[in-house]
Write a structure and sequence with these properties.
alpha/beta, six-stranded mixed sheet, five-stranded mixed sheet, 6 helices, disordered C terminus
Length: 228
Amino acid sequence: MNLLALETATEACSVALVHGETVIARTELAPRRQAERVLPMADELLAEAGIGKHALDAIAVGRGPGAFTGVRLAVSLAQGMAMALDRPVVTVSSLAALALEAPEDDAAILAVIDARMGEIYAASYRRDDEGGLIALDDERVSTADSLILPNLDAWNVVGTGWATYHDALRSRLGSAPRSADGACFPQAKHVATLAVREFKAGRAVAPEHALPVYLRDKVALTLEEQGR
């Protein structure tokens, strides 16, 4: 199959193309520049694979949570491309895509994105036997020191939430994680990997039903909250 995946929920601008058994990808750290980079990156991948947009079977997108503008950008572009091509969309959790950045071992995975305003987006997973993920809890937004996690012995932690709140998160884990990387971002190659499974399972949707997931509806602190 041919599937194009977009992921711009964080500072990273990432695009991947599944072409048969091959996955090729481009990723740039491009804060506030995703809108100008994502489509040229997609065109580069299609040219590299030697196929046109009409050869695509589906569009996949990291549907958040993450930065409001980044999530909205990726979902809007995926919807627009899918409508123009008359193709379905596969939405994938940006936290799940981030979780696949963790080492491939038997430890649970905490995927955590800095949500700004003193909060994090978080979800926990385990790897399954087929290269996918099993969710251990729900995606949520909370403060790091109030995060409730499953009572497990071994953890790998990935995402910018660790870079910002590692002390608080370590206390919630109960012990030091087996590995922790605060410089990881959701990647389109992982969106693509998860999306292929969803597509084959019949869980692609019409473009108008491909919706973003924000987890909260507040963009910034009020002046009073900033003062506090």
